[in-house]
Specification:
- 44% of the residues are buried.
- The chain is mainly α and 283 residues long.
- The protein has one domain (2-277).
- The protein is globular and about 45 Å long.
- It is 76% helix and 0% strand.
- The chain has helices at residues 2-15, 22-54, 56-77, 83-90, 93-105, 111-128, 143-161, 170-194, 203-231, 233-237, 243-255, 261-277.
């Protein structure tokens, strides 16, 4: 359910393009999610407050690198690219986490993991260039794809930064990162409003905002945290690979987007890379 809801985030972002400005969608998403999570987090906040206050710089960094920035870049990107491209590119987050951990933190990797990372990154390249890698020579790329790719890279960095997260209850951390994200997004939202970009008032707009607030923001994080608690992080993280499949199905069925050969090639390469990277080296 977590991966289904997260896949739906790209579908909603694409469907709301032109009706709900990107920063507004991100701001109200986290504002509503904060309202929902506060009653659950409140019993833990009193105990965790000293640690949250002591580690406030890390909380702001987590919000800046992952929670706030990824959503804004995703929604900006979905103004000009397809939800299909978005969900396939997001499948590259686990291999990128592995790559950055190897480069920056000297995490140990074996040859199968290196081969898997390479396959997955070639798959992302196939999607971003629409199967035309020579476009990189003259920068003939969709701006939306580029923004989402930046968001994917930042989210991979955010995932690594979680190793240094404050040692507090998961709901306390969720509450704190939502608050920090709203503080970071508020100036951008003010600029967006000053530029004359307003939400188109309609039932569809409010339904879309409600969806991204309740499902990809509030419930998904609760479910994912609970899933990790029940099955362990390694097993739970394997479900991340299901998200692009859900996303592709939803984009075709709900948005009528065309599933092109470059999507198929990219998805196969990314999933093949994940399978290769997960292979155990011979003893």
């Amino acid at each position: 359910m977590t991966m289904l809801f997260w896949a739906g985030n790209s579908i909603a972002g694409r469907a709301l393009a032109g009706a709900v400005p990107p920063v507004a969608l991100s701001f109200w998403r986290w504002a509503a999610a904060l309202v929902l999570v506060t009653p659950l987090a409140w019993p833990h906040l009193k105990r965790d407050w000293p640690e949250l206050r002591r580690r406030w710089k890390m909380i702001v960094a987590l919000a800046a690198m992952g929670v706030a920035s990824f959503g804004v870049l995703l929604y900006f990107g979905l103004q000009t690219t397809t939800a299909l491209n978005s969900v396939v590119m997001q499948a590259a987050i686990p291999p990128l986490v592995m790559l950055f951990g190897w480069l920056a933190l000297r995490d140990r990797v074996n040859r199968w993991q290196i081969a898997g990372m390479a396959l997955s990154l070639v798959g992302v390249l196939a999607v971003v260039t629409h199967g035309r890698p020579w476009d990189l020579l003259h920068l003939g790329l969709n701006a939306g794809d580029g923004l989402i790719l930046i968001g994917v890279v930042l989210y991979a960095v955010y995932s690594l930064m979680l190793r240094q997260r404050p040692q507090v209850h998961a709901l306390s951390l969720l509450w704190a990162t939502f608050v920090a994200s709203l503080v970071l997004l508020a100036p951008l939202y003010a600029v967006e409003l000053a530029a004359g970009h307003r939400i188109v008032v309609s039932p569809a707009s409010f339904a879309g905002i409600a969806y991204v607030a309740i499902f990809p923001s509030f419930l998904s994080y609760l479910f994912y945290n609970r899933g990790i608690e029940l099955s362990g992080a390694a097993r739970a993280s394997q479900y991340l690979h299901v998200q692009p499949i859900f996303g592709a199905i939803l984009a075709v069925l709900l948005l009528g987007e065309a599933f092109g050969p470059h999507h198929a090639v990219g998805m196969v390469l990314i999933l093949a890379g994940i399978l290769v990277a997960a292979r155990r080296p011979p003893a």
